[in-house]
Each structure stands twice: as C-alpha cells, then as structure tokens.
Amino acid sequence: MSNDAATAEAAGTAEAPPPVAEPIPHGLGASLPPADARAKTEGTFPYAADLWAEGLLWAAVLRSPHPHARIVSIDTTHAREMPGVRAVVTHEDVPGAALHGRGRADRPVFASDVVRHHGEPLAAVAADHPDTARMAAAAVIVEYEVLDPVIDPEQAFEAEPLHPDGNLIRHIPLHHGDPDASGEIVVEGLYRIGRQDPAPIGAEAGLAVPRPDGGVELYLASTDPHGDRDAAAECYGLTPEQVKIVVTGVPGATADREDQGFQLPLGLLALRTGCPVKLTATREESFLGHAHRHPTLLRYRHHADAEGRVVKVEAQILLDAGAYADTSSDALAAAVAFACGPYVVPNAFIEGWAVRTNNPPSGHVRGEGAMQVCAAYEAQMDKIAKKLGLDPAEVRLRNVLATGDVLPTGQTVTCPAPVAELLQAVRDFPLPALPKDTPEDEWLLPGGPEGAGEPGAVRRGVGYGIGMVHMLGAEGADEVSTATVKVQDGVATVLCAAVETGQGFTTLARQIVQDTLGVDEVQVAPVDTDQPPAGPGCRGRHTWVSGGAVERAAKMVRTQLLQPLAHQFGMSTELLQIADGKITSYDGVLSTTVAEALDGKELWATAQCRPHPTEPLDGTGQGDAFVGMAFCAIRAVVDVDIEIGSVRVVELAVAQDVGRVLNPAQLTARIEAGVTQGVGIALTENLRTPRGLIRHPDLTGYALPTALDTPDIRIVKLVEERDVVAPFGAKAVSAVPVVASPAAVASAVRAATGRPVNRLPIRPQAAVVTAG
C-alpha cells in the first residue's frame, strides 16, 4: 500500500470532528421555543382534568332543558337519598352573593324563580363517583311552567322584561360630523353574523380543595384568576384572602376560558362536604355553559362621491347578548367605535344596542364587536366599487386611515396605522396559479376529493378585508399588571399572575429577562392569586402590560447588578452594556461576565406597568376610549362551485402591522391561527339555536375547520413601526387576523359569484348562481 493510500485510509477511519452545536435562541427577536412544548407533546402537562386529591368527590351540575321557564318547585329529596351522594346544593345553599358576572353581576349562581336560557344551572351534586353524581343530578325534580322564549333581538325592545334590569343592556348613539351630508352614490346593506363558540380544545374542568381556615382553593384553567377569586369569595361569603385560585395548564383559550357557572358550584360543594371535589365537563356541558360570540344584525348605508371616497356612513348595530350582560357593553363599544372600519369617514351616525334574549349568553370572544362590523363595512366597500366600476382594492386605498387621522369617536389615531402599506402589499402579491382541469387535480375542487363539483362550474374570486382592533381594555378600564424578577445562583425567576393561554407570554417573559440581564436560564413561576393581580388574558394585554411590568422589574435588577461595577470604575450604569452574557463598558476598560458579576448574589425587584388612561364614550359616542390599535389587510382567493355553492379557500395573503417582532416563530403561528379561525367563522362555524335551544352541542354538529380546511396562508409583509407608548413597541397580533379574514373570504365569494353574500357563515345557497 502506498503512503498516499495509507494516509487516505487513516483519514477515512479517523473520528469525524463533533458537529458544531447550533446556538440556542436567546432574547427578544429570537424564535425561542415554548418552555412547555415538550411537556405538552409528551402528555405530561398538568391540565385541570388530570388533577387528583385524596378523598376526592365528583361533581355534576343540573342544567335547564328550557330556554325560558318559571320554576314552580325544586325537589332534591331523591338525589340526596341516593347511595354515594354527599351533597346537593341549590340557590338556597349559596351563603353569599346570589348574583355574579364578568361585566355586570346579573347572573344567578343557581336559578331560583326563572330560567332564562338553555343550560342555566339549577343545582349541583357531589358524589363518590362521576356516574353517581350525574345520575343524582338527573334525579333532582324540577317542576317548570314553560314560557315563550324571546329569541329575536329585535323583539326584545317590545317584549316583557326578561330580567329585573330590563332587556336593554346598553345603547350607544354615535354622532360625528354633518347629519345632512350626502354623496353622489348611496349603497345599502343588511347583514347577519351568526353565533360562534370558542370551542376550546379541552372542555372545562376544575378541582376545589377546602382549607383548614374555612376557605377553599380552586385549581382551574382560569384566564383571570383574581377576577374569578373575587367573584367566588362574594358567592361563598368569604374574604378574598380565604379563596385561592391556582391556575392549571390552559388547554386553549380564545375567549374567557372558564365560565364562573362551572367554578362557583365546585367551591360550594367542597365547602359543604369538607372534601376535595372535582368537575370535568362533557363537551355538551361546555357548549351549554360558556359564553359565545354575539350574533349581530347590522344595517348600513354608505354615501360616497364619484371617485369612491366615503362621505357619510349611517349604521344600526344590534348585538344579541343572550340572557345576561356579561361583557356585552365592551363588545358594543368596539362595534360602534369601529363601525366605519380603518377608513377616513368625515360624517358618521351609528346607533348600537345590546339586548337580552333567551338565547345562550354571549361574552368575550377574540375580536368581539370588531369582527362583526368588519364583515359589514367591507361588504359596503365592495358595493361602492361595483357601483362605480372601480377595482375594490383601489376604492379602499382612496379611503384608508393613517396616523394622525380622526376616528368617528373623535379620537386621534396616534399609534402607527400603515393601512395603505398593508393593503398595497397584499394587492401586489402574485396570485396563485389556476388549477389544471385534469382528473389528477380533482382534489383542488370545492368539496374536496370525490366531491360533487364539476370543473366547469368553478369560478375563482379575489376579495379583500381590512380589520382593526383595539388593544387592552377600553373606556376607562384600569389596566395594570405587576411582576417580580429574582436572580439567584445564575437563574432568573419571573413571578407574574399573567396566565399563559397559548399567546406566548411565558416565552416572552423569558426573552425579556434574557435580553435585559444576560441570564440564559429563566423560569416563569406557576400562577396563583397569592401573587399581585395581572388582569385577564385578552386583547393582547399581557404582551403590553405584563410584558412591560417584567421589563421594568428586570431593568431594576439590572441596575442593582451593574451599580457596584459602575461605582468601582467611576462611571454610571448607563455606560455599561450587557450582551451575550458579558458586561462591558463603552471604552472597553471593563469586561466581565454576568456570572462573575452575580457571584452568589441574590437580586430581586418588583414593578408595575400601567398604560395611559382612557375615557368612556359620552352620550354622542365621543371620547378617547382606546389605548392603542392594530391593523391587518388580507387578500382572499377562493374557488366557488356556483352550481352547488361549495367554497374552497385557495389562499390568504396577510399583511399586518406588528410594531416589533419579538419572537418570529411565535408571531407567525399566532397569525396563522387567527386566520384559520376566521376561515371557520366565514364558512362553517355556526352554533344553531332554534327556539333558544342549542342544537347539536358537540364537535360533530359544530363544524370547526380542520387542517384539511386550512388554505395556504402567505404572510407577505410585517410592518415593524414601533408604537412608542407600548413596551418594546410591539402590538398584539392574534385578534386582528380573526377580524379581517372572514370579511376577505366573503368579499372573494362575492367576486366569484356576483351574489351579495350578506351572512356569516356563508351558506351554500348564498354562493349558487342560477342560470338566466
């Protein structure tokens, strides 16, 4: 063997150098993976349905089969006498406040004299087996005098009062500009938005454990633990200090995750029996118990000039709140304030009402109020374009809002509002290729594989939707959050009562601390009500106020860390920087690692974040009601079989203003999820309630979009124009795609069929084009 051959053989058998490890994502701007990802994929994540306690009893709730009835009597004798039953509670057993509610305390813990909606709780049972508890609940005998339900919100104005507070929850008249203004053309429309359910992946569940001091601990997937604690304490006749809520893993939340109608009976049974009590709702009970999106009736009239510029908008908006007020006042404020959309409208006259009916209760669901009006005002923009023979995107561009413009509420838009840039980005993005008319591509037809559609009946349409939402609470809501950051032995811990609902707060908190302190290992402590309040997890609150509180606390710890070094070298802490785990001075004289600077120290700080105040809308709908706003433009491409009315969403192109990208992978996932939810709202999701009864309360009858229904989602542009009043300059990203995508899909179906498409979800008959 030659020397060259020997050398080659030795090289081939030598150990290869170890692969270079890829750097772990770190700090703001990196795609840091979620800390709980592995536990969730391995099935070890601690959801409430998995909890257990020694001596556990099981709970079941008896719910009304009628949407409206007078209660003649409730007999619990047979249920109490069943073997294994430990307690039965009704309205007579509530020791504290009999009423509760998120927005307004108007809902009874248990119905006492009248039931106002299908599924309203009347009694709860604790037993030694879940089957026994359910049988005992069914054994409670309730005698009803069935009443005619009020199911049409328009009838609620003239109907007999369904509640001591009356049928009208709120009326907002908005007056802006000249009522006599008019345009050269006028377009009108009547629009209906159906009832959607948040349909969380995991149904409601909880565990209540009595405490030796006479209090109770509730283990729940709560998204507002302090609010739920205070409501529970009122109901139980206890002080807030005697009630503790521990937040378990949240199995998905695009609304108020845990209805208090599940929580309150649970704690009552634990206090009554002195034993831990667990409740796991069936999917049917979940549909009956929690709040849904407000069904909405909208009447619109737009005046425009010959160039397509909007002169005046007149609208009437009617929200069906169901049996109780919940957060309907907030939803109505958003609907009225954003009724004209992200467009400059010099004259606007909007009337909005939220009324009680005997339909299931409505409440907070992602994009509430804003989604309903977006579907209507975007349909009106399509009508203006059609009447003038203009391109729909061009009509929108002639009217879009920008920073410095004034909303119909009189509030000046001070945050970045790059609406024109967003719309131009989706308009100019290349359209998807047309499918080939061959048997191999039949799966591309509306209706899916083996579908009834014929290629010759398919029409393609392109449409647009531009949405806007407000961030944080509105109309004077005190938005505040508190966080503590501790560093010990090189490990940072964040304590904040902001609940991780899937929006990525725990990941963001880790990134903030890594970025500020240069510490790699950051842990986020579990949430309970022993911590200071952080508020509910909705409208991007935790990105803003809780993320802001974490940032401020981390910066205070950073100052504590750097002060000794700055003093030693005779300079201020502002002249020192932390990057890649190292501390360096501006002149290079000082260079050390964060680990060396900590050197066994324990540092901690607590801080709050409170955005600037807002004000309620006045008697004419005027006021600076919102802290900030976010915008999104979507172009939808659909294929419609005009003979059978089936719709396939081919592609959704998305452009969104995000302020600043804090976690690219997480942000992309949130936008894609919001768009997909919007597709469901546009085409399939409709919780039907004939005569006030929830029909098919299951995930077979309620058609959620699946992976097969999800179109190609192209995020074509993210505008990073930082909002100067927001921590990190970032904006919430989840809600506004939900708002814009249903409107875009409906617009595309209109373009394909020439039909008005004035109802969501879009029914097949609305997309059928008859010959002649």
UniProtKB/TrEMBL annotation:
Region (Disordered) residue spans: 1-38
Listed SMART domains: Ald_Xan_dh_C
Composition-biased stretches (Low complexity): 1-15
Domain called Aldehyde oxidase/xanthine dehydrogenase a/b hammerhead: residue spans: 42-148
UniProt protein name: Molybdopterin cofactor-binding domain-containing protein
